[in-house]
From TrEMBL:
Belongs to the peptidase A8 family. It comes from Oerskovia rustica. Pathway: Protein modification; lipoprotein biosynthesis (signal peptide cleavage). This is Lipoprotein signal peptidase. Residues 1-37, 204-265 are annotated as: Disordered. Residues 204-215 have a biased composition (Basic and acidic residues). It is found in: Cell membrane.
């Protein structure tokens, strides 16, 4: 008898093996390759950083130009009313912060503003929201606008007085940089209430999703326990013998849910 040629050793492609439902398996394993679906970002972080830088530069430009105009046109003049007593132009040189707070401690305010600016710049690396980009741009521009005054204006380095000329009734007198800072504070408060972090993620929704996932897991666990405890279809039901007459030792009959065969005599 002639020798048969050797069979090829190339293994056949493996077919998907369906899972065994009785073993607690899931659906059949698919042989199709799976793709990694990742969330798509609508705006690149570099673009958002550019928004912050450009907006801050615009705030600084408008702030410094209006201050130069105020020094040239308003210094030494009386108050100019724009909307009666509610809005007016009054030139002052402020050595403190808003509302005159911190007068006499200009150098301390300079350090505080510098720390705030460093914090803003470091936070720009995490930015992932257009709203936060606008807020940080306004805040950075306003802080730098007033810091320029404290560094370069009289009476000296880090002790310069900020030029203020926009009066709001009898409340306080500010400038364009102050307007930007207030607008940024309002935007940050709104974003915080909405639960939007600086990275653009809505943390309130994440917490709700985690709670919903936990509730779903609890419900699935309870359903699995009920399925395990339920008898299989067609399986005989267990009946407990009832107690027979006392002292007779005769086994009792199985409890039935239907009508009795007879009545007692």
């Amino acid at each position: 008898m002639a020798d048969l040629p050797p069979m090829p050793s190339t293994p056949s492609p493996q077919q998907p093996v369906p899972a065994d439902p009785s073993a607690g398996g899931t659906e059949a394993v698919s042989a199709a390759p799976t793709t990694d679906v990742r969330p798509r970002t609508t705006v690149a972080p570099r673009r958002l950083v550019l928004w912050v830088v450009v907006l801050a530069a615009l705030v600084i430009l408008v702030d410094q130009v209006t201050k130069i105009w105020a020094v040239a046109e308003l210094e030494g003049r009386e108050t100019i009313e724009l909307l009666g007593e509610w809005l007016h132009l009054t030139f002052i040189r402020n050595e403190g912060a808003a509302l005159g707070i911190g007068s006499g401690y200009t150098w301390i305010l300079t350090i505080v503003v510098t720390v705030v600016i460093v914090f803003i710049v470091r936070s720009m690396r995490k930015i992932g929201s257009r709203g936060w980009a606008v807020a940080l741009g306004l805040l950075l521009g306003g802080a730098l606008g007033n810091l320029i005054d404290r560094i370069f204006r009289e009476p000296g380095f880090a002790q310069g007085h900020v030029v203020d000329f926009i009066g709001y009734g009898d409340l306080f007198i500010g400038n364009v940089a102050d307007i930007a800072v207030v607008a940024a504070a309002v935007m940050i408060a709104i974003l915080s209430v909405q639960g939007i972090g600086i990275d653009g993620q809505r943390h309130v929704d994440q917490e709700q999703d985690q709670e919903q996932a936990k509730d779903d897991a609890d419900e699935e666990g309870g359903a699995a326990e009920r399925t395990t405890d339920a008898p299989e279809p067609g399986a005989p039901t267990k009946t407990s013998p009832s107690a027979g007459p006392q002292g007779s030792g005769a086994p009792g009959t199985a409890a039935t849910s239907g009508p009795t065969a007879g009545t007692e005599s």
